[in-house]
Amino acid sequence: MELRQSEKLAGVCYDVRGPVVEAAARMEAAGEQVLKLNIGNPAPFGFTTPPEVLAAVAARLDGSQGYSDSRGLPTTRAAVARYHQARGIPDVEPEHVYLGNGVSELIMMSLQALLNDGDEVLVPAPDYPLWTAVVRLCGGRPVHYRCDEASGWQPDLADLAGQVTDRTRAVVVINPNNPTGAVYAREVLEGIVTVARRAGLMIFSDEIYDQILYDDAVHVPTASLAPDLLCATFNGISKSYRLAGFRAGWMALSGPRGQAGGYLEGLNILANMRLCANVPGQVAIEAALAEGGGAGALALPGGRLREQRDLVHQMLTAIPGVTCVKPQGALYAFPRIDPAVHPIDDDEQFVLDLLRAERILLVQGSGFNWPRPDHVRIVTLPSVEDLKIALDAFASFLAGR
Q1: How confident is the model at residue 19 (pLDDT cuts 50, 70, 90)?
Q2: Distance CA 182, CA 345 (A)
């Protein structure tokens, strides 16, 4: 009997690790060198966590061999609660925190516990594609609200409000944003909260880049503006603490929980089913939050992240037919390729052709659920020297098409 793909995967894609990446892997296997600007993985680019964090984890490895509570170690959950309390979300307590094998697992759990078939979730466009994929896997329907490039990629509140129906259950906020690097203004977040309040929606706020901010950008936690709404805030140590391989993240619930008993029971069922998140990773969360050493200083003037962000923006905007909103946070740039200057019909084919010609790996904009083939995402983690090589090659490729 032929084994077929599950119908649940229809329409599910994650092109950050899709067909173009597979082509790059084949090239590397054949001995070719590929410069990867497709994934925000800090360690390969020389961004390592402070040694005191690793030492703290190593000191507790002997005690990390058994299962923990299904929600996570109490001491780590308490550390996460304090982290959010210090950021203006006073009602987060340890019992409201779930630890996971990365934020990705928790996104899956949070939506599995909420959605029935046909339920709708408002997701930004462009988005981090895992959100759209997981909504579909859970039987829901992702409905994309527009972020406005002309307004620095801030969400279009009128478009958001116009997408709400009687099937809408939640709204997703990604701030600082992947892939655009936008950091949302307080008044925009207040507008999103107003839409959610009027429609009785749950809020999912993905804040994994909350410490990586440039210039005068200020990160405002969404839940701090919505004490009357059930909010799930997602964060972890993969980006700010440069520990992506530890697969350690958390979800903190805030707001009224009295009428969410069924949802919370569902979360606990799912947490119990996976037994627990990896315990050394949970220890790493506690160590990272205790020892500090987040990436904030690297984004300040003189910091490596800031220098690389500046170079990427400068070189991109010097290319004829390319514009780019200057990222205010995160680790990416999302330039626009003017179709009047460089017409592109298929952006996946475009990045595949770039890969084959220049050995540079990017991600097409449609991989982030952007509706037109006129953007790519570029990771700003490589060194200045490597970024210069990559962006010179990108410019040459565009000029030669």
Answers
A1: confident
A2: 26
